[in-house]
Design brief:
The chain is an alpha/beta fold. Helix content is 27%, strand content 25%. Bound molecules: adenosine-5-diphosphoribose and zinc ion (ZN).
Length: 364
């Protein structure tokens, strides 16, 4: 058992408390990880702001990387000293989806219950069980995760970069490559240029999309977007569809939403050329359905694609993304606008709520 400083959400209020939790030794099939870095992601904010139900108390954070400290019985994929990126949706490796190579729609994972495969949690706080958000809880000096959630990467990749590969980069690049399968030379618009939207822009640049249009309310974010590959940037007003149509000669081939707002998701089909695809990446609060004009959608042959975690297969995609970074093709480090300590995490969420900062990363 190790003691670990961690950022804990108690289920109400929008502030995290810094507490010392106890982390159990890794049981069979599990891995103890000493965290190197954890990103501060929009999905953590959804939990803090009460948009989604989660068990509590919960150690927040799901975008992280670190060093394997110890392994439980039966673990063969990693060993102490390995550097790993954590996956916030661990595959069960047994269901039909996993056996078909579609770990991202695994039906046996208990990640969303915030428990290990056997239903237990490795954390306690003041003698009572505590949960790790999405079974990783990366805003903690130590965590215990299932073997299938710890993916080894080369040691040359810095932890701050590696942490972002674990969520925003996997989601953003994955949605472009795995879900939309964007072809070189096709046009794309990205609504929302936070950590996830900027990662989509990096993915679009990687595959040679053109033009790449970034839309955000915040000019600072649009400067990041230009740096990472956007050819055009727009602060939206009522004329967004017309502006996109002017740049793309009639509408974009792909439109991504990376905010998680009902209104901006509903605006996607209007940004598309006939035959284009709208990709829903941002996650709205629960019970917030969106509506589309189905007749217009059908008559113009537009598609709507739901995209979760960029349809990432962690064991396949994390090492690939890490090697693209090392090859200079994916400048993940440019996404990191702030490196912070764990107690500064609440300020990072406040800045995010104001639409500021590309990505804050907690460095341990
Ligand atoms: N129009 C355009 N941009 C907007 C608008 C709007 N109406 N409202 C907010 N934004 C911008 C913000 O300025 C910010 O740059 O959306 C961006 C959201 O980014 P972050 O808060 O950094 O969130 P991020 O981590 O990128 O996650 C975005 O993806 O995975 C999901 O759960 C996640 O729903 C969340 C979304
Ligand atoms: Zn995330």
């Amino acid at each position: 058992m190790v003691q670990s400083q961690a950022a804990v959400h108690f289920g109400e209020g929008t502030k995290l408390q810094i507490e010392v939790v106890e982390v159990a030794d890794p049981g069979r099939g599990n891995v103890l990880v000493r965290m190197g870095a954890s990103g501060v992601c929009g999905s953590d904010r959804h939990v803090l702001d009460g948009d989604w139900e989660m068990p509590s108390p919960t150690v927040l954070g799901h975008e992280g990387a670190g060093t394997v400290e110890a392994v439980g019985d039966g673990v063969t994929d990693v060993e102490p000293g390995d550097h790993v990126i954590l996956s916030w949706f661990y595959p069960c490796r047994r269901c039909t989806a996993c056996l078909s190579g579609k770990a991202y729609v695994c039906t046996g994972s208990r990640s969303e219950e915030c428990v290990l495969p056997d239903g237990t949690t490795p954390l306690t706080l003041d003698g009572k069980p505590a949960f790790a958000y999405l079974a990783v809880g990366t805003m903690s000096e130590y965590t215990v995760v299932p073997e299938s959630a710890a993916i080894r990467i080369p040691k040359e990749v810095p932890f701050d970069v590696a942490s972002l590969i674990g969520c925003s980069i996997a989601t953003g690049v994955g949605t472009v490559v795995n879900d939309a399968a964007v072809e070189p030379g096709t046009s794309a618009v990205v609504v929302g240029a936070g950590g996830v939207g900027l990662s989509i822009i990096m993915g679009l640049k990687l595959v040679g999309a053109n033009p790449i249009i970034a839309v955000d309310l915040n000019e600072e974010k649009l400067a990041f977007a230009r740096e990472l590959g956007a050819t055009h940037t727009i602060v939206p007003d009522d004329d967004l569809a017309a502006q996109v149509a002017a740049i793309t000669e009639g509408g974009a081939a792909y439109a991504f939403e990376a905010i998680g707002r009902v209104e901006t998701i509903e605006s996607l089909p209007g940004l598309l050329a006939p035959g284009g695809s709208a990709v829903v990446v941002g996650l709205p609060p629960v019970d917030a359905p969106v509506s589309f004009d189905a007749l217009e959608l059908a008559e113009s042959g537009k598609k709507i694609i739901g995209s979760n975690y960029g349809s990432t297969v962690p064991g396949r995609d994390f090492p690939k993304l890490a090697s693209l970074y090392l090859a200079g093709a994916l400048p993940v480090d440019k996404l990191i606008s702030h490196r912070i300590s764990l107690p500064e995490v609440n300020e990072a969420f406040d800045a995010m709520r104001r639409g500021e900062r590309a990505r804050s990363v907690i460095v341990f």
